[in-house]
Amino acid sequence: MTDNVSDINNINNNNTQNNNNNNNNNIIVEDFDGVSKEVITASIDAINHNSLRNSMPTLYKSVDVNAQWIANKLKERENEFIEKKNMIIFLGTWNVNGKKPQESLDAWLKDPQVVSLGQPDIYAIGFQELDLTAEALLLKDVSRSLPWEQHISNTLQGDYVKLLTKQLVGILLCVYVKKEHRQHITQVQSDIAAVGIMGMMGNKGGVAIRFSFYNTSICIINSHLNAHLENTQRRNQDMRDISKTIKFTAEDGRLLSIYDHDQLFWIGDLNYRIQLPDHEVKERIKKKEYHILLEHDQLLNQMKVNAAFEGFREPPISFAPTYKYDAGTEDYDSSEKKRTPAWCDRVLWKTAKTAENVALMGYRRHELLSSDHRPVSCSFLIKIKTVIPDKRHKVYQETIKELDKKENDSMPDAAISTNSIDFEQIRFMVPVVKNIVIENIGQVIARFQFIPKLDESSLCKSWLKISPIAGMMIPKEKINIELTLYVDSLSSQAFNVLGESMDDILILHLENGKDYFISVSGTFQRTCFGNTLESLVRYPHPVRNNIPIPPEQKKLSIPKELWRIIDYIYNNGMKEEGLFIESGVGKEMELIKDCLDTGENFSSIGPLSIHSMAEILIRFLENLCEPVIPFQMYQQALDASSSSISCKTLVSHLPAVNYNVFFYLISFLSEVLTYQQSNKLTPDQLAIIFSTVLLRPNPSSPQQYQTDAATIKKKADLILHFLISKDLM
Amino acid sequence: MSFPYEYIFKYIIIGDMGVGKSCLLHQFTENKFVPDSPHTIGVEFGTRIVDVNNKKIKLQIWDTAGQERFRAVTRSYYRGAAGALLVYDVTRRITYNHLTTWLTDARNLTNPNTVIMLIGNKKDLEGQRDVTYEEASAFAKQNGLIFVESSAKTGENVEEAFLRTAKLIFQSVQEGNVDLIPGGVSPQTNPTTNDPTTTTTKDNNCSC
Ligand SMILES: Nc1nc2c(ncn2[C@@H]2O[C@H](COP(=O)(O)OP(=O)(O)OP(=O)(O)O)[C@@H](O)[C@H]2O)c(=O)[nH]1
Ligand SMILES: [Mg+2]
């Protein structure tokens, strides 16, 4: 894959639309479905990533890191959109000894001691020995459960709905919930585990129901474990077998054990006995010395040594053993067998480490007489977390915003010292340097680059230089950018002649980030240097602060500046030795230029080296945007140089102003030569010096590099013709 | 790798200086109002992921300088925009009067399918109102623009402006009105240089 632009050819326009319509606010992990690779750049830059899906290797499971991040953030802020509510769960267990319903269940399910603390939100009711018939055992006939379910429904009346019932032969578990909660219950599942005769017949075993109640997962097991005093180890084993056998399936397909729940309840006829002689047990029951009996309770003792029900807890027992009665009476077993009373019927619970523990509301037995067991119940308070959709949405939106902000922050950011640079007064051929400092104030590496404006190929105007034009900064690093403004004879025409204003806008581009505009401006001091002859003859007054006269007015025959220079030399330096050969003084020359441009007298400068003025003459000619012999005649001039006649013809074709200037200069130089004895100048010397400035190739042409002796001689010859033969002009 | 979005739309925000373009961007991307927002000198940039028809769309928003002197330079940034938010200030008629020139630029420099939304900002300054809703609404209708009045200060209608534009663009994508133009964007202003997918797709050794 290269980049977006070159991928266009690969685009399959029939992209499969992503069927991601799952935007349910109650699901914590937002579904970002974007596991796809191909990129389309449409004319409006719609980029659809879906069509690459097929090219993903199937073994590779992608992780949506953004969705994960968002889910974690929401979890962190859960308190802001979650409301805790207390819910009451009632757990009841009764071994009915094969009896059909014959008495009211009110004393159990509607026990005033229970309901006075609040109507339970959930009823989980377990029965054992619902059906002792051979049919139930062998044919798995479950018809006996219906009257009991009916009986429960009648007792609970219209406030409750049945969530689920599950039966394994004589073991039945029924879960009822208040109507208002039904819609907040999901993932309702059940399972059974038979541990009876041959491990599969189901006269002993357990049934389990699990569900998610709001966001709390609950699992309830109702079991009937093996009987008889001496079978403690069997019961322990039954419990372990049931807990291993029962399995549910999570939404994502994982198997869930009973321990994978926030709240786990285990009820039933667990059949553990009191390890004491019958008469002592009965004696102590009479005296309500339960605590002594409980010291000998098999279950509590097994739990103490972690031999069964590891991690489970039981509320303290403060009621008499619930087994075994003569049915219909309040008397413990009077039959031959004389079963010793025991707490067979129990309620245990286990709260996951990650969940909030339950609060105990009361563990008691109830006086229903029809069976040889008494029913038992225990109610608990469970704290349920409920999501407030509006608040959650708000937090979700804020989280997304935070992510966007992070993303925006992770874009490079830079501070630049100024957006606007004024170079103020700019003089011809005097470079001025200004600096901009860029600082990386973002959190990532910033790469910057100056870029051209729309439809332009250069970064800036020709009179400006940027250095460096690109670079990289680590966070907090600063880079100095040097802007050099320099007007030479190539760029000066725009200001001197065309009167353009001096400004430009630079675009500093941060890779993957914003662009900065930098305005650059300056005020060019108009000057006769870097000007054109054509323009200068339109200035009867100094160029600096005047405007040229309109075309219809009479123009000067030669630039007055040229006249002033030559006039000065004529009056002050014709006899000077080394004239045009010695260098001028830099400072003086700058002042002379100013005088030329402002009209000021040269005398204002004070004493002045004649060599400065002589050099000014040469510089003036050299810096003319177009030389006295125009660029387009350069080659002709070289060709003509061997013949004085050709040279004469060539000069006669010069534009009028150029001709005037040429004539004027030759006359002056001839005059200079008349002082040859003093100034020691020869015609050859003057010809060489002046030919290089009067006759120049176009700087953009390859000829400018012709600096060979032959070319130099040709140029000089042209001038020489005029210096030695006066009648050529 | 996976992307948390399926489309990227480029937006540009244009309009006279001081109308609140940068404030609208900040309000939309960060829920913040910056009372002394400096003039934008250049082009700023913000992103946000939004939901349109249950699709995650990444909006890539380019906030341009409104000052007249940068007009020629900011024209470089119109190219490739799927949406253009054309903003004026309801308390300054002059910014409304300039809409036609902005609109001309927007039409000339963007694709015919580019969704242009007219936004009358600073609606919270009811007392200083200089342009009525009705007048601007008529202007919008005449020029086939969608229109909303917003306040970058209170946040009113800011979401709405960005989202309505996104919906219309999305609709246009679905109707197939968006033609694919290969390499239609100059490198320096290429909106996709800011596109994270450019880098992430490189990691994928896919053969295309
Ligand atoms: N009362 C009010 N003030 C606003 C609102 N939007 C922006 N402003 C103010 O208007 C001024 C200019 O806002 P900006 O967002 O910087 O304007 P801009 O369009 O980006 O201007 P340029 O960057 O120069 O093109 C700031 O001082 C803001 O505080 C608004 O909705 N209500
Ligand atoms: Mg701005």
UniProtKB/TrEMBL annotation, chain A:
Hydrolase found in the keyword field: yes
GO cellular component: early endosome membrane; phagocytic vesicle membrane
Subcellular location: Cytoplasmic vesicle, Phagosome membrane; Early endosome membrane
Taxonomy, superkingdom: Eukaryota
TM segment ranges: none
Alphabetized UniProt keyword annotations: Cytoplasmic vesicle, Endosome, Hydrolase, Lipid metabolism, Membrane
Stretch forming the signal peptide: none
Region (Disordered) location: 1-24
Compositional bias (Low complexity): 8-24
Subcellular location, principal: membrane
Pfam family, one: RhoGAP
Biological process, per Gene Ontology: phosphatidylinositol dephosphorylation; signal transduction
One of the record's GO molecular function terms: inositol-polyphosphate 5-phosphatase activity
Residue ranges occupied by any Rho-GAP domain in the UniProt entry: 531-729
Alphabetized PROSITE patterns for the sequence: RHOGAP
Similarity comment: family membership: Belongs to the inositol 1,4,5-trisphosphate 5-phosphatase type II family.
PANTHER family the UniProt entry points to: INOSITOL 5-PHOSPHATASE, TYPE II INOSITOL 1,4,5-TRISPHOSPHATE 5-PHOSPHATASE
Protein name according to UniProt: RhoGAP domain-containing protein
Record organism: Tieghemostelium lacteum (Slime mold)
Automatic annotation (TrEMBL), chain B:
Protein name, as recorded: Ras-related protein Rab-14
One Gene Ontology MF term: GTP binding
Topology in the lipid bilayer: Lipid-anchor
PROSITE patterns cross-referenced by the UniProt entry: RAB, RAS, RHO
Disordered: annotated span: 180-208
Reactions catalysed, as given in the entry: GTP + H2O = GDP + phosphate + H(+)
SUPFAM superfamilies membership: P-loop containing nucleoside triphosphate hydrolases
Family: Belongs to the small GTPase superfamily. Rab family.
Gene Ontology BP annotations: defense response to bacterium; endocytic recycling; Golgi to endosome transport; phagosome maturation
Gene Ontology cellular component list: cytosol; membrane; phagocytic vesicle; recycling endosome; trans-Golgi network
Keywords: Endosome, GTP-binding, Hydrolase, Lipoprotein, Membrane, Methylation, Nucleotide-binding, Prenylation
Record's subcellular location: Endosome; Membrane
Residue spans of biased composition, Low complexity class: 189-208
InterPro entries in the cross-refs: P-loop_NTPase (IPR027417), Rab14 (IPR030702), Rab_GTPases_membrane_traffic (IPR050209), Small_GTP-bd (IPR005225), Small_GTPase (IPR001806)
Enzyme class: hydrolase
EC number assigned by the record: 3.6.5.2
Transmembrane portions of the chain: none
